[in-house]
Design goal:
It contains 10 helices and 18 strands. With about 350 residues, the chain is an alpha/beta fold. The chain folds into 2 domains: about 180 residues, Medium-chain alcohol dehydrogenases, catalytic domain (Quinone Oxidoreductase, Chain A, domain 1); about 140 residues, Rossmann fold, CATH 3.40.50. The strands form 3 sheets. Strands 3, 5, 6, 9, 10, 17 and 18 form a 7-stranded mixed sheet that branches. The protein has a 6-stranded parallel sheet with strand order 13-12-11-14-15-16, sandwiched between helices. Helix 5 links the parallel strand 12 and strand 13. The chain is globular, with a radius of gyration of 20 Å.
């Protein structure tokens, strides 16, 4: 049995409990989790935004060390350092064949899968096929991505979700070019990663926008050149920093209609707007036909940074190794498993960056 952070239902306080993991099958890997990030998608599981099955082991953004492999596993060996991939592509469906593995039908719409059991025999489920807020996980070998042993193992957990999402949206969706102006709305873990991605691409200015002044230092450390507190005059302020036009690229990292409208209003004519935040099905955003035509802005959504983790995670690992990407700027709290509920509350209040749960 392993200790894990378990949610019993919607709007319930998650708590530490024990889970009996299945024995690894021929193509499975057992990973000793060393660190796991507390992601907003985990909060969405218990806030009713998403609809998983319960009882649910939370967590999906993690790094660890391979502890056991099945007889047919060839990707990793015992002792390898790995990042977990919560949306492993099948490589066989139509979307995978079109080089769009982030839209793979094998993982489409899946919020949880059954895996393991509680000590009394009740079947348990794991978030996004991972359940990473636990001492150990058992996953298919296509859900582990090897990383160099010299990388900081704990911080590398963030590469599996926040970083590949934020940097991926900058590179793959917005395709930011050197010298372009970028505005990032919402400075949590993904927003900080988007800022870091914009800096990697040579963007400038990079304007961070958040409702909290307390996010200023975090944003600047990640690579922002300007910081604005979100208010009625935000769009005007952004235009003032971009020669009166508005930003070339806007990245919305909140998942709320108001933030999407802010991204729209902060952008120039012809701008690229990318929505990274996972919103509620009841929170609608609207645009008039005239403004869509007149401003000629494009809006797209970025699922997992429109990335292929098997190729993008190693590239990000190289950027970390070479000192181009500092993962420490994304982490504001290093905590234990028991502190996860407090991390969720900080997230609800819009406080801090990533909380990183450390094991062992």
């Amino acid at each position: 049995m392993v200790q894990a952070m378990i949610a019993r239902g919607v709007d319930t306080e998650p708590e530490i409990g024990e889970v009996v993991l299945p024995e690894p099958g021929a193509e499975d890997v057992r990973v000793s989790v060393r660190a796991a990030g507390v992601c907003h998608s985990d909060l969405s599981m218990i806030d009713g935004v998403l609809s998983p099955s319960f009882p649910l082991v939370l967590g999906h953004e993690a790094s660890g060390v391979v502890a056991e492999v099945g007889d047919e596993v060839t990707r990793v060996a015992v002792g390898d350092h790995v990042v977990l991939n919560w949306t492993p592509p099948c490589r066989a469906c139509w979307f995978c064949q079109q080089q769009e593995p982030w839209l793979c039908t094998a993982t489409e719409g899946i919020t949880s899968v059954p895996r393991g059991a509680l000590p009394d025999g009740t079947p348990s489920h794991v978030t996004l096929g991972v359940g990473a807020l636990a001492e150990e996980v058992v996953v298919g070998e296509n859900a582990v991505i090897p990383i160099p042993a010299e990388l900081p193992l704990a911080e590398s957990a963030l590469v599996g979700c926040a970083v590949v999402t934020g940097v991926g949206a900058v590179r793959n969706n917005a395709r930011v070019r050197p010298g372009e102006s970028v505005v990032v709305i919402g400075i949590g873990g993904v927003g900080l990663s988007a800022i870091a991605g914009a800096r990697l691409c040579g963007a400038g200015p990079i304007i961070a926008v958040d409702v909290s002044e307390a996010k200023r230092d975090l944003a600047m450390a990640a690579g922002a050149t300007e910081f604005l507190v979100a208010e009625q005059g935000t769009a005007k302020a952004v235009r003032g920093l971009t020669e009166g036009r508005g930003a070339d690229v806007a990245l919305e990292c909140v998942g709320r209609s108001q933030a999407i409208r802010t991204a729209w209003q902060c952008s120039r004519r012809g701008a690229r707007i990318v929505v990274l935040g996972v919103g509620s099905k009841d929170d609608h955003v609207s645009f008039s036909g005239l403004e869509l035509y007149h401003f000629a802005r494009s809006i797209s959504a970025s699922v997992y940074g429109s990335a292929d983790p098997d190729t993008d995670v190693p590239k990000l690992a190289t950027a970390v190794r070479d000192g181009e990407l500092d993962l420490n700027t994304l982490v504001t709290h290093r905590i234990g498993l028991a502190d996860v509920p407090a991390a969720f509350e900080r997230m609800r209040q819009g406080e801090g960056g990533r909380s990183l749960v450390l094991f062992g």
